[in-house]
């Protein structure tokens, strides 16, 4: 290290402090990287890798660099791939430096702490997730540095960490930090790890409860965290404190725009776990496509980034308070009925930029004049919005509360109007931001600089006339300053008072004493002008930063107004109706429609849903594949979710008794990478539902038991039906789709169960799906019809019909050619089955007294006995 240049010594010092980050080391007009960092950066950014000098071991030093002014185009590519980047900047002006320029890391950019507009390019929250825990008690916090939002919760999880995973799936963080003990928990990290989440181990001290508690109190300037709801939640405090410390450490700022913690609890919202979010396609399609083919894609017609973020949070956490839901529905209803108000509001809101992130950058200190101009334009419509709401909204409620939350920023608007140019440059260091008339001293410097440049322009013509050299030019560059340029052919005509300054390929550059004197005057004025402009900009920025809390509250109010106006617009355009939401256990929907499917399907057939806690609590739905069972179940759940976020719904009438959780087991997929088959995944998801569903829940189950043998599958399906119907003695509202049409016989035995089926019409060998759900049971599966529709060769389906006929009349069994059919007949009550001791033992099982695990063990024993074991 002693043989290194001073600059390389600075580089290695920075790398030693930030071993897990790629170092962007500022050298003149470039950010350079060296060694292994250079190899990574060259590969990921597809730039040239070269070598220069020697490293500490005496080997060739790999080198890769990017122009400093292009960093905003390169940096996001690294951050999105999960890398940390430490910016090692020049801390002094190289022109003023004595010896080597001082350098130091000014910030570390990570996926979850990005704040720059080039890094946070969409309106979604960019969350840093922080997890702490003791045993199975976890604290989870989410921090968005770009908006200043910090939220936290604490809960008891299970050994599969399902609740931690549900929070991660709901909030979709870009990065997650864990203390060493949790980071080394392979089961947890494997579940958390995904292409979208970068996992990082963070120092244990940051998660210590005492440290976190004191750091949070100090940051927020409070004596207790009681007012933020987490005083008695040690794990929540630990995770929130660690998130804030991590952000401050990486950003090397105080982050004053993070002004509070919001503590939330499961009891405040409908719980939608990661499986339900996927199966119902709440924010993206099940195939992982963008939100277009999702519930959010249908509803999100917001005009502001704040509204878009708020709506996303709402669909991920529907309310379970009748009063709050009703208040939101009242607000939507008001705007539905007032067409002109709705039009005006959405027009004004469309001009409002991302105030939350603008404030974040202003307080953080990396804003520019264009950010302030965007803030001004966003504040201008607020008086008109306020006036229009007051004229149209008379009764108290959510809209009147929104009006009260708007701040008065007329002084900020006037200041920015008076101070800023209408089209300021991106850089705040090069001048051109401040209007004439704002500052007298700045105006003088502008005149001095302009006068000097006019003198330069006049000098060129004077010298051409004096020397007779028509091609003579007076130019400027940042290295050599002002010069007089003469081509080689005209050098004999150069006057004696010209002093040679530089030789070029095409001629010579000169200066005169008068030009040198004027240059010093102009450059001095320019430097002073730019320095004063930056000083004035910083003062204006600080004045606005002092109002950050008020501005954040106004931004939140505008976002909520945007959501209400959007839900009203979507309701009108899509023919939605206002639902009634109450505390009963009844769900009554007339002419319900699937909000996503109906947009892409001409002639969507609506259906009714009637559920209660008496005779219609458990709906068993039969019918062929492709008939619409899954769509029907999903649309019921989505209508419930829409109602509980305060949205109108796709139906002619809807009354929804509050649902605390929605559970789904819909569709099948393999997770072979983790060694789990389709059936194993089905059983794991089923276990979660059976263990956690409450009488206020809504359960959607599709084809339970189809992933194993007919005997096992039917037995499991029947046991599940009985268990859910009788759980906690009152049962759970459920929609259960199945091909085991023999389960329909349970309708008489289970008093809260009703049979429904999807109507179909047979026309010869063809099958017409009517898409209508009607009372009663079906006695056929129509599998061969569906196979024909799917394009299975005609010879195969014709032969299948022959085999089916043989099976149905028992001929195949008598000849001993279809043992699987014999199993079915034995299971479903044939003459042969009555002689089986397995069936007798099955009939004697007391399923109601069994736990799910005991039931599965009993089934395993029966299967072994049936197979002769």
From TrEMBL:
Keywords, A to Z? ATP-binding, DNA damage, DNA repair, DNA-binding, Nucleotide-binding
Q: One of this protein's GO BP terms?
A: mismatch repair
What residues does the DNA mismatch repair proteins mutS family domain cover? 697-713
What does the entry list as the binding residues for ATP? 623-630
Which Pfam families does the entry link to? MutS_I, MutS_II, MutS_III, MutS_IV, MutS_V
Quote one Gene Ontology molecular function term.
Answer: ATP-dependent DNA damage sensor activity
**From which domain of life does this come?**
Archaea
Q: What does this protein do?
A: This protein is involved in the repair of mismatches in DNA. It is possible that it carries out the mismatch recognition step. This protein has a weak ATPase activity.
Instruction: Give the family from UniProt.
Output: Belongs to the DNA mismatch repair MutS family.
Which PANTHER family does this one have? Answer: DNA MISMATCH REPAIR PROTEIN MSH1, MITOCHONDRIAL (PTHR11361:SF34), DNA MISMATCH REPAIR PROTEIN MUTS FAMILY MEMBER (PTHR11361)
Q: What is the protein's name according to its record?
A: DNA mismatch repair protein MutS
Organism field: Candidatus Methanoperedens nitratireducens
């Amino acid at each position: 290290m002693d043989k290194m240049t001073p600059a390389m010594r600075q580089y290695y010092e920075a790398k030693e402090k930030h071993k897990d980050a790629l170092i962007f080391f500022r050298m003149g007009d470039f950010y350079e990287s060296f060694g292994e960092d250079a190899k990574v950066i060259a590969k990921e950014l597809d730039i040239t890798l070269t070598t220069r000098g020697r490293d500490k071991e005496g080997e060739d030093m790999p080198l890769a660099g990017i122009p400093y002014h292009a960093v905003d185009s390169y940096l996001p590519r690294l951050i999105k791939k999960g890398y940390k980047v430490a910016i090692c900047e020049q801390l002094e002006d190289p022109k003023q430096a004595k010896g080597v320029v001082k350098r130091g890391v000014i910030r570390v950019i990570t996926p979850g702490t990005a704040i720059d507009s080039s890094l946070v390019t969409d309106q979604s929250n960019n969350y840093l997730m922080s997890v702490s825990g003791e045993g199975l008690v976890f604290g989870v916090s989410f921090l968005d540095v770009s908006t200043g939002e910090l939220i936290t919760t604490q809960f008891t999880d299970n050994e599969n960490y399902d609740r931690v995973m549900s929070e991660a799936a709901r909030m979709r963080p870009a990065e997650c930090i864990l203390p060493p003990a949790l980071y080394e928990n392979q089961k947890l990290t494997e579940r958390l790890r995904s292409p979208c989440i970068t996992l990082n181990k963070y120092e244990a001290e940051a998660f210590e409860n005492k440290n976190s508690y004191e750091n949070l109190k100090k940051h927020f300037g409070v004596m207790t965290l009681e007012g933020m709801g987490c005083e008695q939640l040690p794990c929540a405090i630990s995770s929130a404190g660690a998130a804030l410390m991590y952000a401050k450490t990486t950003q090397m700022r105080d982050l004053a725009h993070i002004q509070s913690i919001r503590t939330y609890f499961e009891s405040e919202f409908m719980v939608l776990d990661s499986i339900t979010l996927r199966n119902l396609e709440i924010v993206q399609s099940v195939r992982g496509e963008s939100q277009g083919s999702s519930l959010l894609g249908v509803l999100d017609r917001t005009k502001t980034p704040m509204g878009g973020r708020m709506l996303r949070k709402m669909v991920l956490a529907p309310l379970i308070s009748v009063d709050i839901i009703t208040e939101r529905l009242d607000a939507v209803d008001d705007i539905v009925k007032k067409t002109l108000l709705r039009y005006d509001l959405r027009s004004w809101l469309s001009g409002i930029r991302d105030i939350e992130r603008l404030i974040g950058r202003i307080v953080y200190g990396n804003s520019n004049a264009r950010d302030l101009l965007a803030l001004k334009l966003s504040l201008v419509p607020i008086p008109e919005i306020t006036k229009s709401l007051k004229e149209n909204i008379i009764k108290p409620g959510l809209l009147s509360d929104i009006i009260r939350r708007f701040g008065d920023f007329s002084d900020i608007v006037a200041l920015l109007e008076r101070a800023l140019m209408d089209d300021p440059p991106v850089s705040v260091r090069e001048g051109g931001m401040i209007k004439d008339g704002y500052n007298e001293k700045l105006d003088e410097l502008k005149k001095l600089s302009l006068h000097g440049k006019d003198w330069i322009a006049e000098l060129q013509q004077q010298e051409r006339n004096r020397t007779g050299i028509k091609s003579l030019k007076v130019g400027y560059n940042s290295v050599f300053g002002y010069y007089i340029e003469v081509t080689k052919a005209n050098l004999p005509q150069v006057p004696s008072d010209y002093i040679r300054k530089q030789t070029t390929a095409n001629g010579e550059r000169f200066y005169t004493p008068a030009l040198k004197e004027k240059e010093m005057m102009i450059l001095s004025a320019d430097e002073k002008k730019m320095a004063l402009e930056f000083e004035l900009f910083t003062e204006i920025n600080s004045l606005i930063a002092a109002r950050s809390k008020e501005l954040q509250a106004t931004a939140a109010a505008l976002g909520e107004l945007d959501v209400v106006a959007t839900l009203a617009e979507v309701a009108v355009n899509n023919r939605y109706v206002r639902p009634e939401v109450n505390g009963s256990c009844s769900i009554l929907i007339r002419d319900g429609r699937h909000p996503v499917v109906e947009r892409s399907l001409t002639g969507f057939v609506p259906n009714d849903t009637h559920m209660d806690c008496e005779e219609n609590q458990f709906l068993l739905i039969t019918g062929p594949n492709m008939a619409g069972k899954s769509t029907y179940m999903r649309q019921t759940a989505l209508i419930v979710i829409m109602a509980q976020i305060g949205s109108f719904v796709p139906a002619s009438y809807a009354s929804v008794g509050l649902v605390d959780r929605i559970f789904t087991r819909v569709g099948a997929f393999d997770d072979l990478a983790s060694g789990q088959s389709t059936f194993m995944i089905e059983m794991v998801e089923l276990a979660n539902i059976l263990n956690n569903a409450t009488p206020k829940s809504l359960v959607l189950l599709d084809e339970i038991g189809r992933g194993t043998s007919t005997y096992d599958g039917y037995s499991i399906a029947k046991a599940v039906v009985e268990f859910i119907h009788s759980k906690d003695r009152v049962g759970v509202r459920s929609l259960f789709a199945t091909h085991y049409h023999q389960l329909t016989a349970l309708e008489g035995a289970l008093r809260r169960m009703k049979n429904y089926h999807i109507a179909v019409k047979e026309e010869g060998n063809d099958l017409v799906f009517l898409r209508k759900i009607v009372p009663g049971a079906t006695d056929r599966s129509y599998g061969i019809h569906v196979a024909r529709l799917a394009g299975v060769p005609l010879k195969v389906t014709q032969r299948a019909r022959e085999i089916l006929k043989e099976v149905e009349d028992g001929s195949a069994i008598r000849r001993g050619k279809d043992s699987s059919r014999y199993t079915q007949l034995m299971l479903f009550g044939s003459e042969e089955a009555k002689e089986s001791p397995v069936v007798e033992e099955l009939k004697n099982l007391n399923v109601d007294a069994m736990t799910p695990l005991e039931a599965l063990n009993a089934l395993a024993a029966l299967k072994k006995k049936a197979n002769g074991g």
